[in-house]
Amino acid sequence: MSTPFHPALFFTAMILMTACGEEPISRARVPKTDEPPALAVAPRDMSSSGPGLRWSMPKGWKEVPGTGMRLATFVPPGGLKTEGTVVSLPGDSGSELANANRWRGQIGLPPTDEAGMAAARTTVAAKIGPVRVYDFTSEGEARTRLIAAVVSTGDTTWFFKLMGEAGATESARPGFLAIIKGLDAAK
User: Fold this and answer.
1) What is the per-residue pLDDT across 88-112, written as a single tens digit (0 to 9) for each?
2) 29, 108, 142, 151: least buried by Cβ within 10 Å?
3) What confidence tens digit (pLDDT) does each residue in 57-100 have?
4) What is the DSSP string of the chain?
5) In this structure, what is the dihedral angle of CA atoms 115, 120, 121, 125, given to the nearest 10 degrees?
6) Could you tell me if residue 164 is inside a domain?
7) Domain containing 129 — which CATH number?
8) Containing domain of residue 76, as a range?
9) Residue 37 belongs to a domain
10) Close Cβ partners of 97 (under 8 Å, ≥ 6 residues apart)
11) For the chain, what is the domain count?
12) Measured on CA atoms in the order 187, 151, 72, 61, is the torsion positive or negative?
């Protein structure tokens, strides 16, 4: 008894046999550089004296260069366990509620609704105009506090954030708000 010839099986076998050829392995040497990898959103070179916004540090506060997407980091005096940061992003960078819930998540709080967000929001008069400020404190024994300020200038949204141990953040709050009140358009 002979096996019947199936053309479809024959051609499938031929394709698989020719497709399984070995591909050459290649190697290349790439010189090492000290440059960081490119970011998806590269921060613009904006600091207290750069274009966009301008700010000044209260007495005893220090501004250090930011890393990653941070444009700057603010360090309050006295070794407090809290720090301020500045990030600028193009456009509106998400809805007000989405940003508030992202901040809440950073300190372990569940999402809130429009009413909860409004209860956590105040408006601060700054040189550049009104600035929305949000204040959240986590629950539990080791509490974390986050105070965030949002400023829109043209096609850029600026996020100023103070976050750390709840008591330290409360102590640093007046200095942080002084930074926010002093925000002005860079010339």
Assistant:
1) 998 877 789 999 999 999 999 999 9
2) 29
3) 999 999 998 888 999 999 999 889 999 999 999 887 778 999 99
4) -PPPP-HHHHHHHHHHHHHTPPPPP--------SSPPPPSSPPP---TTSSSEE--PPTT-EEEE--TT-SEEEE-GGG-SEEEEEEEEETT-S-HHHHHHHHHHHTTPPP--HHHHHHHEEEEEETTEEEEEEEEE--SSS-EEEEEEEEEETTEEEEEEEEEEHHHHHHHHHHHHHHHHT-EE--
5) 150
6) yes
7) 3.40.1000.10
8) 53-185
9) no
10) 112, 113, 114, 117
11) 1
12) positive
Tokens of 90: 């193009």
